[in-house]
Design goal:
Strand content: 5-15%
Number of helices: 2
Largest sheet: 3 strands, antiparallel
Helix content: 40-55%
Distance between the termini: 113 Å
Mean pLDDT: 79
Low-confidence stretches: none
Strand order of the largest sheet: 2-1-3
Length: 112
C-alpha cells in the first residue's frame, strides 16, 4: 500500500486504501499523509525528450510545406530599401512638381 493512498478509518482506526473501511464499512476516514510527510516522487525532474532530427523532415512531408529558406533576411532588407527608395523618389517628384507649377504660374502672371 502506498502512503499517498493510505487512509485511516476514524471509527475503528484501521488503515486501508479503499473508499469504505473493510472492517467496519465506515466512510469516515482521513489520509495518512496528513500526519506522515511523503517524499516527492521524483528527486529531480526528468529531462525533456529531444526529438530526433528526422522528425522535422517528417513534419514537412506531412504538412506539404517547403523547408525554410535561410536568405529571408536579405530579401526582406532589399524589399524594405526598395520601398523606402520609391517613397523618397515620389516625395521628390511631388516637391519638384509643385515648384514647377508655382514657377510656371508666376511667370504667366508677370507676362500679363
Amino acid at each position: 500500500m502506498q502512503l499517498r493512498t493510505a487512509r485511516l478509518c476514524l471509527d475503528c482506526e484501521e488503515v486501508h486504501d479503499e473508499y469504505r473501511c473493510p472492517v467496519c464499512a465506515s466512510d469516515q476516514f482521513t489520509y495518512m499523509s496528513r500526519w506522515v510527510p511523503t517524499p516527492e516522487r521524483l528527486s529531480r525532474p526528468r529531462p525533456a525528450p529531444t526529438p530526433p532530427p528526422e522528425a522535422e523532415a517528417y513534419r514537412q512531408i506531412v504538412r506539404g510545406t517547403p523547408p525554410p529558406r535561410k536568405s529571408r533576411g536579405f530579401t526582406k532588407a532589399l524589399v524594405g530599401l526598395s520601398a523606402a527608395g520609391l517613397g523618397a523618389a515620389g516625395l521628390a517628384g511631388l516637391f519638384l512638381g509643385a515648384r514647377r507649377a508655382r514657377g510656371g504660374d508666376a511667370g504667366k502672371k508677370d507676362e500679363d
